[in-house]
Specification:
Keywords: Membrane, Transmembrane, Transmembrane helix
Distance between the termini: 22 Å
Largest sheet: 2 strands, antiparallel
Number of helices: 11
Strand content: under 5%
Number of strands: 2
Shape: elongated
Radius of gyration: 27 Å
Length: 286
């Protein structure tokens, strides 16, 4: 502790200001990094959507209504007669754990190809998904068995390098670099504050207040973003989109709330520690 608590106001104030700036940026960038930089963000959205009963039921109704728009003859008659059963079948398919695994596996192949640069698998086979769905549709009506002939005609989708649009892999690397840079700057500025802090109490209390404030800020951002996204979703005409947009957005912005609450508890703990009486150093008798 001899290196710390120098009680130099001229050094403590700038250090606290820089810590506030860097830690605030770290919290925002860190939340974004947790959302899109750790794991496959598409799978996070998929998990959120397929965990929602209302979305899966809405997807069933949407499938029937969209198919009816182009259906003719016997196909249209079948859809009209058994619309509730077909809608329920879609819900059952979306609730199937094997279906979810196949969807996430396809997502991982595409993610690793385009984001991580893994070229081992350069195609996506959607046939296993259809093979899972077909028996469930056949249980609704045997006429769906005719679709089995079409399965053999389906070929894997070849992945091709992107030639237009933003370089997502590069964007991810920037987020990663920014996260580690801000983390180091935050730690350095915090160390400098501790070096110049006036007392043991201020060494805990000031960082605690800063951390609590940033935590509250993140919670507010998350709340405002949630309300804004819900408001925008309500203006969409498609019922399924109104249901899906808030769910998908929550999967991506939830790290703001998680990080904010964690910082609230950490900051409060530091503030409480600052009020605890520090036992005096023992007197050494010569």
């Amino acid at each position: 502790m001899s290196l710390l608590l120098k009680a130099k106001r001229g050094g403590a104030i700038p250090s606290a200001i820089f810590f506030t700036i860097f830690f605030t940026l770290l919290s925002i960038v860190g939340s974004a990094y947790l959302s899109i930089g750790v794991g496959n963000p598409v799978n996070k959205v998929i998990d959120g959507l397929l965990s929602s009963t209302s979305f899966k039921e809405g997807a069933g109704d949407y499938f029937v209504s969209k198919t009816l728009e182009t259906a003719k003859g016997d196909e249209r008659k079948l859809l009209i007669e058994k619309a509730p059963q077909i809608s329920a079948a879609v819900t059952v398919i979306l609730s199937n754990s094997d279906f979810k695994k196949e969807i996430e596996s396809i997502s991982d192949i595409a993610y690793n190809y385009y984001i991580n640069g893994a070229k081992e698998r350069q195609s996506i086979d959607v046939k296993p998904i259809l093979q899972l769905a077909l028996p469930i549709f056949e249980s609704v009506d045997p006429q769906f068995s005719k679709l089995s002939k079409e399965l053999n005609k389906i070929k894997p989708i070849k992945l091709k390098p992107r030639t237009t649009g933003p370089d997502v892999a590069q964007i991810k690397s920037y987020f990663t670099l920014g996260f580690w840079l801000l983390l180091n700057l935050s730690l350095v500025s915090l160390f400098l504050y501790l070096l110049f802090a006036h007392s043991f109490r201020s060494a805990f209390r000031v960082p605690g207040i800063i951390v609590v404030s940033v935590g509250v800020f993140l919670v507010i951002i998350n709340s405002v973003a949630t309300v804004t996204i819900k408001s925008q979703a309500d203006s969409v005409t498609e019922a399924l989109a109104r249901e899906a947009i808030p769910i998908a957005a929550h999967a991506l912005i939830s790290p703001l709330m998680t990080t904010g609450l964690a910082e609230l508890f950490l900051g409060l703990a530091l503030i409480v520690l600052s009020f605890l009486k520090r036992s005096p150093d023992p007197v050494v008798k010569s």
